[in-house]
């Protein structure tokens, strides 16, 4: 199944082209961009990123762990220090807060990897270093017979060149 | 000398706990070897106590020697002993160090050259001595301190048997003038003894009875008893100190009359005169003294004594009004060339006040020969003229303790053969041709006459650590070696058997067990004024030299005449007045310092006709402008701690030896005159930093050492209750009111586990604390506290868990920019306001140190102690930062390895962990003692009784200023003591740390003769 | 323009031509090029300084802390001072990348990478000091709540424990933040490198290709991390300040400490960024990316925080006086006029007075001035901590044990070593990772191309806004 790569200079054009292609029924699209570009964010996938869930869960885990650990550990030896109760919440809140941040942050990183499907060790055949320079790439996989049409559509949206790579 | 460190020792005796704890986590595991045959009286882990007697000073206090597994580890007072009643002074506490001292002579030594000796066997040594005795014959002389009655008797017998020249006793501080004065005034030969228990007015003309007087512990106890405010009006004795310098004793007085040095006699008579005018004295006394007192009208002596007539009049009235006024004659520092007349004058004052026969008794002269300075000087002349062929030197260190001007050291060179019996190396033994080391007191038998009716026993408490022999045994063996003729005149058997014979009148076993035979003092024959009493001649003191300053050589409260200088605990304990450790200094008045442009620590040259001395100055308010005072006791050149060897300069003197600039003067009686020279002071431009362990004596009105006026007590002033003297008008800096709202009363007994039967606490009575620091040394010895030495004391790195803070009044907001600071000018003649406040861990109920420790190394244990877990400590030192009392210490180095040279490790308390490098430590309320008591109680299925356990500090205290006990026991002594509404307060109460220690404010009794 | 028609599939079967690289890539990657002689010399210097400090530390650990200047009652000294100093430095990075990110301050893009890197290295430096100052450093792990047979846990009520958690959390999160930001740039480097670098970058880039799902997740991640890091950065120095505020030491026990310390931290952090970036920009000719405009913005921050810090100094003295507590009054009086007066006045001058020059536009944009002032601020902030810690401890409640403290050569060696340690990491970083966030800079450039003349630099709008 052949794969065409349209090389663009402006993210806006990529977006238009992608939209057009999807309307024409070409579902298997992928975009390479050298920079984050909000025009492109939702071309491929409408839904907002699910990283947010990871952060939330991590944070909740952290705050619970914070209080649970401190209080449980205080029960092992109920030592009196400075005339304070053996488990005193105000100071433990600081620990709980720090753990919230810690686990929340780590979970977010994990979310990035999962959601962004990282790490991936075999680069796509369609990927090219120019896409980490200034060019944008729109990758379309299609039937042999549609190659010409796709090519045309890409060029119609000011792809400065269109290349065919083996998928 | 076999190096045995503490760990090995513990292995030998098989005490496990100590070793495991001491080892810490990073130390290798070691095997513990149990006894093969266990001595029946020893249970490993349990102490055995032996009664004995302290030989540090002539007072002869009773000891209980605490031994563990055959090693003495601490000296405690013998509660049955009439002199000290269970207390023991700083010097006594430190005395244990002599036995384990690195400077001990391993065995007989023969001199091979300048300062070099070779070890020889006893047989050889005795043969050698016998040979010398044979040659010397009547040229043989024996010089020593007082070795005790039995030893004295046999030494004399021996000297007679071998046809020796004779024996001379030299005691630097012996009250020779006083003895003669007594016979002059009362016609009764004997030694006047003073009892303050029933006195309601004490006038001290400089005896410094609380530090270096004839019997410091006994006098401290009597003094405290006479002033005990708890026992109602009758007991509030007044105390006036008359002398040129505000000594430690003086700082406990109500009033300081800064009379000129040497003016004591004239003042005493003038006061007597004023008293007589006010109606004091029996008719007989008045009649006998009429002529004498006629010349001593207060107005006439005012100029000569430097005391206003008005003051003298007032004292006179006070004496007249007093039921029982006791006057004490000057001590060594003020013993001048007219010492006998001075002492006589003071005795006459006592006669006038009518206390002779009550507070002042003349006990009949004891057997044996008395110390005589005159004889000592005669001996020196004989030595110089070569008439002394062989000099035997018993205990004592004459090369150091005699004034350099006597030329004793030079005279010693002229003696063909010198034998020393010293058990520790000192300046004298270093010059001996033969050293035949005696046992230390802890290893030997002996006896002492402590007081009339009190015969004390000295018994060995461990097998001699070195190849030493009892002095008398050495002599007897030598005698026998001289052939049958001599032997026939000598007893058979050892000194011990002779001692037993000497005690044949008593039950030997009981005497040994109880530490002697104590009977009530025999009724002294009532002394009355001798006919010649009225004819004594009191006049201006005779002083050599033309300087503007009178040189005062002050006996050091710790080093005494210098014999304490080689005991590190005494060097480490800061002087009670200047708070300087390990060093010498010269006290001058602020005016003097200003006049010479001297700052604290500037080196000044003190010049007398006899010589020159360079020493750092300590300017203070508590000294007359015409006086310079230098403590006796430093300047040794031999001894690990006595000399500068500890500071890495062996052979060099530590500090300055004031004896170098004192003339070899005597008084009319031939006694030693210490007050004999004028000095000129010259700024050298050099500066030597002084190791002030307490950096400031100005408490800036903070709640540390408080005082309340007597009036407040009478009024039962509840207002004062909360705020310990805060209401005092003279309060430094009007922030007192702020305290009033802040100070909320609290119940310290609540601060422990509800289920626990104990909450340990303490009550410290500042009105009883004299600053004698017995507690400080006791704490050091009990708790294996490292001794850091001079350099680290200068760095402010002392380790003591308990320190006595000396505060001059409420203090002011002055100063603090530079440290350390000299004593305030507020220390002025008149009403004395110096507060000695023992500072130790307060075992707070809400301890700031606990909550900040990240690893829970310190916490509040169920019995309310602020516990410190050394093994858990990682050394963040946050606890100390957060401790407002600053009583936590940090192990900067691994003291456990380097701090106990020689055999000193053997005296470590195996119940107390030796702390490792990098951990914090602090007062534990002697938790090891509490544990022991708890164990005993548990075995009997009961709780610890009150008084069953006490801390080392409380135990040592001569005035019982410290009470330790269970705050949850309503009837305990500590609770009873803490309940003093008008006086009780808590240090830094406003911080709400809920301390377990209640302080009782010092009582200010005001000017004598102005009651109320 | 109309593209040529596709003739046949075969005709199109050719490899992609290598497109010429973007300028930003070339410029910024150039920094990572072959090191100059000067660079090598400098690196050697700092490495040997670190080695020396390490040696003294070993010596101290063996002999005991007696070799440091501590003496009763001053048990905290140069080590804790330096700890607080470096923790403070560590605040600029997160502030710039997190808080300015949330405030949409686009100008941060040029400096956030270097700032974040400094944060990580500063924390790595600071973290050493609480251990160096321990009496028994080999027991440091007792500060961590690790499971052990006797169930001996730590004391969570101790401010030092709060420190352990705050600082380690901060170290972790700021590292994560740095790395996440780096991923796309590492990918850029990967595509343009060979040999070991290629291998290294391939691993670190995690196979990043800049596909839109990746970018979307990435943006979201950065946003959330910013959200988390913002309260964190404020908490960390608050917690550090509570090491002091939670005690009862006069001069420490003050409620304003948290905001006061945070402001001080940002203050010193920005100063350090300037101190480091001004030479870097000069040496590697990055003027195109880091403009005077950036520096000027930072000086504005410095001016603001300097005013806050100066105000805090004033409040401390006022409260000490107003409280009427003699111990407090004495402590502060002697702070300014006692034995440590010099340190106190260095601190006040450098932190409160000197930065006032930034009221003037000419000086705000005069690079040499900025550099000198930033260095002075670093000095002043070190002394601030020295004054707070040492003078307060030297004059506490009990005048009997008031003390004096002088740092020993050991402490000073280790202090110097800490600067070397920090520089060492930064120098290495320069050569391994892009010192400027290429993709963020590039984003702005590309946007420029699309909307020429837009004031995108000043107040940008980000992806989230658009949706």
What would you say this structure looks like, in words?
The complex is a heterotrimer of chains A (167), B (1012) and C (467). With 167 residues, chain A is α+β, with helices and mostly antiparallel strands. Chain A is 50% helix and 14% strand. A four-stranded antiparallel β-sheet of chain A has the order 2-3-1-4, with helices on one face. In chain B, 27% of the residues lie in helices and 17% in strands. Chain B is built from 33 helices and 38 strands. Chain C is mostly helical. Helices cover 68% and strands 0% of the residues of chain C. Chain C contains 19 helices and no strands. In chain C, helix 6 (112-126) runs antiparallel to helix 17 and helix 12 (292-323) packs across helix 14 (341-353). Classes of the chains: A alpha+beta (167), B alpha/beta (1012), C mainly alpha (467). Chains A and C meet through strand 1, strand 2, helix 2, helix 3 and helix 4 of A and helix 8, helix 10 and helix 18 of C.
**Low-confidence parts of chain B:** 12-26, 718-740
| Structural class estimated from helices and strands of chain A | alpha+beta
Rg calculated over all Cα atoms of chain B: 28 Å
Residue share in β-strands of chain A:
5-15%
Helix share, percent of chain B: 25-40%
- Please, what is the average pLDDT of chain A? 88
Task: Name the average pLDDT of chain B.
Answer: 89
For the sheet with most strands of chain B, the description reads: 7 strands, mixed
Order of helices and strands of chain A: EHEHHHEHE
Number of helices of chain B: 33
Individual helix count of chain A: 5
**Gap between N and C termini of chain B, in Å?**
64 Å
Instruction: Extract low-pLDDT stretches of chain A.
Output: none
Number of strands of chain B: 38
- This entry's quaternary arrangement is heterotrimer
Gyration radius of chain A, rounded: 25 Å
Number of strands of chain A: 4
Shape of chain A: rod-shaped
> Kindly, what is the distance between the CA atoms of the first and last residues of chain A, rounded to a whole number of angstroms?
6 Å
């Amino acid at each position: 199944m052949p794969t065409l790569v349209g090389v663009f200079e402006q993210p806006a054009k990529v977006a238009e082209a992608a939209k057009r292609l999807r309307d024409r029924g070409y579902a298997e699209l992928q975009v390479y961009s050298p920079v984050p570009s909000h025009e492109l964010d939702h071309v491929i996938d409408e839904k907002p990123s699910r990283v947010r869930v990871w952060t939330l869960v991590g944070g909740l885990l952290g705050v619970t762990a914070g209080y649970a650990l401190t209080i449980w550990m205080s029960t092992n030896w109920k030592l009196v220090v400075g005339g304070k109760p053996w488990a005193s919440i105000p100071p433990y809140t600081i620990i709980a807060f720090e753990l919230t941040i810690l686990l929340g942050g780590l979970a977010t990183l994990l979310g990035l990897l999962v959601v962004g499907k990282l790490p991936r060790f075999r680069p796509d055949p369609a990927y090219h270093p120019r896409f980490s320079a200034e060019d944008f790439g729109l990758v379309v996989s299609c039937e042999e017979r549609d190659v010409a049409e796709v090519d045309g559509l890409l060029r119609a949206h000011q792809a400065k060149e269109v290349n065919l790579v083996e998928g | 000398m076999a190096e045995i460190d503490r760990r090995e020792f513990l292995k030998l005796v098989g005490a496990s706990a100590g070793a495991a704890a001491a080892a810490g986590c990073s130390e290798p595991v070691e095997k513990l070897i149990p006894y093969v045959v266990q001595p029946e009286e020893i249970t490993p882990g349990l102490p055995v106590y032996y009664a004995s007697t302290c030989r540090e000073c002539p007072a002869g206090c009773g000891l209980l020697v605490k031994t563990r597994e055959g090693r003495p580890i601490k000296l405690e007072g013998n509660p049955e002993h009439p002199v000290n009643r269970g207390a023991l002074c700083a010097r006594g506490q430190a005395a244990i160090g002599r036995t384990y001292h690195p400077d001990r002579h391993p065995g007989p030594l023969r001199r091979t050259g300048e300062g070099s000796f070779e070890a020889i066997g006893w047989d050889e040594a005795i043969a050698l001595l016998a040979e010398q005795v044979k040659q010397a014959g009547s040229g043989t002389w024996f010089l020593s301190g007082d070795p005790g009655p039995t030893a004295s008797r046999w030494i004399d017998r021996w000297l007679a048997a071998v046809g020796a020249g004779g024996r001379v006793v030299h005691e630097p501080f012996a009250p020779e003038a006083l003895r003669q004065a007594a016979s002059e005034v009362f016609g009764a030969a004997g030694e006047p003894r003073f009892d303050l228990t029933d006195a309601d007015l004490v006038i001290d003309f400089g005896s410094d009875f609380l530090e270096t007087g004839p019997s410091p512990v006994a006098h401290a106890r009597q003094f405290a008893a006479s002033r005990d405010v708890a026992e109602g009006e009758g007991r509030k004795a007044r105390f006036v100190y008359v002398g040129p310098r505000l000594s430690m004793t003086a700082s406990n007085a109500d009033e300081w009359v800064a009379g000129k040095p040497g003016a004591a006699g004239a003042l005493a008579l003038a006061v007597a005169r004023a008293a007589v005018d006010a109606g004091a004295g029996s008719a007989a006394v008045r009649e006998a003294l009429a002529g004498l007192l006629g010349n001593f009208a207060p107005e006439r002596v005012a100029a000569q004594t430097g005391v206003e007539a008005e003051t003298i009049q007032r004292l006179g009235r006070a004496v007249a009004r007093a039921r029982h006024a006791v006057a004490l004659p000057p001590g060594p520092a003020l013993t001048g060339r007219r010492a006998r007349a001075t002492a006589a004058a003071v005795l006459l004052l006592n006669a006038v006040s009518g206390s002779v026969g009550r507070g002042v008794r003349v006990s009949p002269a004891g057997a044996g020969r008395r110390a005589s300075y005159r004889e000592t000087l005669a001996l020196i002349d004989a030595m110089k003229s070569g008439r002394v062929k062989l000099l035997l030197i018993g205990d004592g260190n004459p090369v150091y303790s005699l004034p350099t001007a006597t030329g004793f050291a030079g005279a010693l060179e002229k003696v063909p053969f010198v034998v020393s019996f010293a058990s520790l190396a000192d300046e004298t033994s270093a010059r001996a041709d033969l050293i035949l080391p005696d046992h230390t007191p802890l290893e030997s038998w002996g006896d002492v006459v402590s007081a009339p009716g009190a015969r004390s026993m000295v018994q060995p408490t461990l097998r001699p650590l070195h190849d030493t022999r009892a002095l008398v045994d050495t002599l007897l063996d030598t005698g026998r070696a001289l052939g049958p003729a001599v032997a026939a005149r000598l007893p058979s058997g050892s000194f011990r058997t002779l001692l037993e014979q000497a005690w044949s009148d008593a039950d030997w076993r009981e005497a040994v067990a109880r530490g002697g035979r104590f009977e009530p003092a025999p009724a002294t024959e009532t002394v009355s004024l001798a006919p010649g009493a009225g004819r004594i001649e009191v006049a201006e003191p005779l002083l050599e030299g033309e300087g503007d300053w009178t040189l005062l050589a002050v006996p050091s409260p710790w080093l005494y005449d210098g014999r304490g200088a080689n005991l590190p605990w005494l060097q480490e304990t800061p002087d009670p007045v200047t708070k300087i450790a390990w060093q010498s200094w010269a006290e001058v008045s602020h005016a003097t310092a200003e006049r010479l442009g001297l700052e604290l620590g500037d080196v000044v040259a003190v010049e007398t006709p006899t010589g020159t001395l360079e020493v750092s100055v300590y300017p203070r308010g508590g000294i007359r402008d015409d006086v310079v005072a230098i403590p006796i006791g430093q300047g040794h050149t031999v001894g690990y701690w006595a000399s500068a060897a500890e500071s890495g300069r062996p052979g060099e003197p530590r500090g300055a030896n004031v004896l170098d600039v004192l003339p070899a003067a005597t008084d009319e009686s031939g006694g030693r005159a210490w007050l004999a020279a004028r000095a000129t002071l010259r700024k050298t431009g050099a500066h030597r930093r002084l190791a002030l362990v307490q950096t400031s004596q100005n408490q800036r009105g903070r709640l540390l050492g408080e005082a309340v006026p007597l009036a407040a007590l009478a009024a039962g002033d509840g207002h004062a209750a909360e705020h310990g003297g805060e209401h005092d008008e003279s309060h430094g800096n009007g922030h007192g009111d702020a305290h009033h709202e802040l100070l909320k009363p609290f119940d310290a007994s609540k601060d422990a586990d509800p289920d626990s039967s104990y909450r340990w606490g303490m009550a410290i009575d500042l009105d009883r604390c004299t600053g004698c620091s017995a507690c400080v040394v006791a704490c050091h010895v009990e708790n294996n506290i490292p001794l850091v030495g001079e350099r680290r004391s200068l760095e402010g790195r002392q380790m003591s868990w308990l320190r006595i803070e000396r505060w001059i009044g409420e203090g002011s907001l002055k100063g603090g920019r530079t440290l350390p600071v000299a004593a305030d000018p507020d220390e002025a003649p008149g009403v004395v306001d110096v507060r000695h406040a023992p500072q130790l861990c307060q075992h707070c109920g809400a301890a700031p140190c606990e909550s900040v420790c990240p690893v829970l190394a310190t916490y509040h244990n169920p019995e309310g102690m602020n516990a410190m877990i050394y093994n858990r400590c990682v050394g963040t030192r946050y606890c100390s930062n957060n401790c407002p009392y600053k009583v936590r210490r940090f192990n900067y180095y691994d003291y456990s390895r380097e701090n106990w040279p020689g055999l000193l490790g053997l005296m470590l308390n195996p119940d107390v962990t030796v702390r490792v490098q990098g951990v914090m430590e602090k007062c534990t309320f002697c938790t090891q003692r509490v544990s022991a008591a708890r164990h005993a109680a548990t075995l009997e299925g009961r709780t610890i009784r009150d008084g069953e356990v006490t801390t080392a500090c409380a135990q040592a205290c001569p005035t019982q200023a410290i009470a330790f006990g269970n705050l949850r026991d309503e009837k305990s002594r500590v609770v009873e003591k803490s309940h003093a509404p008008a006086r009780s307060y808590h240090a830094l109460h406003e911080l709400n740390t809920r301390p377990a220690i209640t302080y009782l404010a010092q009582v200010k009794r005001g000017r004598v003769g102005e009651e109320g | 323009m109309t593209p040529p028609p596709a003739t046949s599939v075969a005709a199109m079967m050719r490899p992609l031509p290598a497109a010429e690289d973007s300028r930003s890539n070339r410029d910024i990657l150039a920094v990572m090029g072959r090191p100059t002689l000067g660079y090598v010399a400098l690196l050697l210097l700092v490495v040997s300084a670190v080695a020396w400090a390490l040696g003294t530390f070993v010596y101290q650990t063996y002999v005991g802390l007696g070799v440091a200047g501590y003496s009763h009652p001053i048990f905290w000294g140069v080590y804790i001072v330096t700890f607080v100093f470096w923790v403070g430095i560590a605040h600029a990075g997160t502030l710039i990348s997190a808080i300015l990110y949330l405030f949409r301050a686009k100008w941060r893009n040029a400096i956030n990478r270097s700032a974040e890197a400094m944060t990580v290295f500063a924390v790595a430096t600071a973290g050493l000091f609480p251990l160096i100052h321990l009496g028994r450093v080999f027991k440091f792990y007792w500060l961590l709540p690790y499971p052990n047979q006797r169930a001996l846990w730590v004391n969570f009520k101790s401010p030092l424990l709060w420190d352990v958690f705050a600082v380690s959390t901060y170290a972790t999160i700021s590292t994560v933040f740095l790395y996440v930001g780096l991923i796309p740039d590492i990918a850029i480097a990967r595509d343009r490198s060979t040999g070991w670098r290629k291998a290294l970058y391939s691993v670190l880039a995690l196979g990043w290709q800049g596909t839109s799902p990746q970018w979307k997740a990435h943006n979201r991640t950065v946003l959330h991390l910013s959200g988390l890091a913002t309260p964190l950065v404020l908490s960390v120095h608050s917690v550090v300040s509570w090491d002091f505020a939670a005690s009862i030491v006069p001069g420490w026990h003050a409620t304003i400490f948290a905001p006061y310390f945070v402001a001080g931290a940002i203050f010193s952090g920005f100063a350090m960024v300037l101190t480091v970036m001004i030479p870097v920009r000069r040496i590697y000719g990055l003027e195109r990316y880091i403009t005077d405009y950036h520096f000027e913005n930072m000086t504005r921050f410095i001016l603001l925080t300097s005013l806050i810090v100066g105000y805090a100094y004033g409040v401390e003295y006022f409260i000490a006086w107003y409280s009427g507590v003699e111990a407090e009054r004495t402590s502060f009086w002697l702070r300014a006029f006692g034995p440590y007066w010099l340190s106190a006045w260095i601190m006040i001058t450098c932190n409160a007075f000197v930065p006032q020059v930034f009221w003037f536009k000419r000086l705000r944009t005069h690079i040499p001035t900025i550099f000198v002032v930033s260095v002075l601020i670093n000095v002043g902030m070190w002394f601030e901590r020295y004054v707070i810690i040492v003078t307060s401890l030297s004059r506490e409640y009990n005048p009997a044990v008031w003390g004096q403290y002088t740092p020993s050569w050991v402490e000073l060696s280790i202090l110097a070593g800490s600067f070397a340690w920090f520089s060492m990491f930064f120098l290495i970083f320069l050569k391994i990772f892009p010192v400027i966030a290429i993709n963020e800079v590039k984003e702005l450039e590309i946007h420029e191309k699309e909307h020429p003349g837009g004031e995108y630099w000043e107040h940008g709008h980000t992806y989230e806004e658009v949706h």
